[in-house]
Amino acid sequence: MRGSRRNFLGAAAGLTLAAQMPAAADEDAKPASAAKRGGGDLLSRMTWLNDPALVNYTEGVLNVRSRGKTDFWRKTFYGYVNDNGHFMHLPIAGDFMFQARVDGNYTALYDQAGIMVRLDEKTWMKCGTELVENKRWASVVFTHDFSDWSTMEDLTQRGAVYWRVVRQRDSIEARCSLDGEKFVTVRQGYFPAHQKVMVGVMCCAPEGQGFDATFDQLLLDAV
Asked: What's the pTM?
């Protein structure tokens, strides 16, 4: 299995954001609004890094079929660099909270679906449910040229999990929940401050031939 595992739980804190949002990450992309946006409104403004095999959008629900042998990972332990996972995103800067309810038909080793925050191909984090040894795990990877990996047992072995990322100053916190109300902290990690980033949903099938993932109840809150 990849890397080491550092697991910890923490009570989810209330989110108060007070940073002004700068311009979008590029001229062609639309900036994220300071107001809360969710569901289909977010999906209509997001674009793909690495198109999946199949995509279907219906009333705020994103259904995706990932391609096989896809992943986001850099160097550590394995020595390879993979940047061909599927990432649907929009640009944002400053402090924010992004959330999605995530489910998938996880069948092969390392099948994964969740959320990603990405500065560039060498600087990113991803979190979500990942299948390891025929069991679901809540998985988080931070990458600063080299990737690391941490896990804890997933909140459920069947059904959807809410995932939330909170960016505050020079950190990102990954949280998960069964009901979308009570969240537990899976991990906090360093992330460069004052940088425009891309945030959105991701899925990968590193070992398998692809699997089906579903994302809904997307929510972005930034000030």
From this structure: 0.84
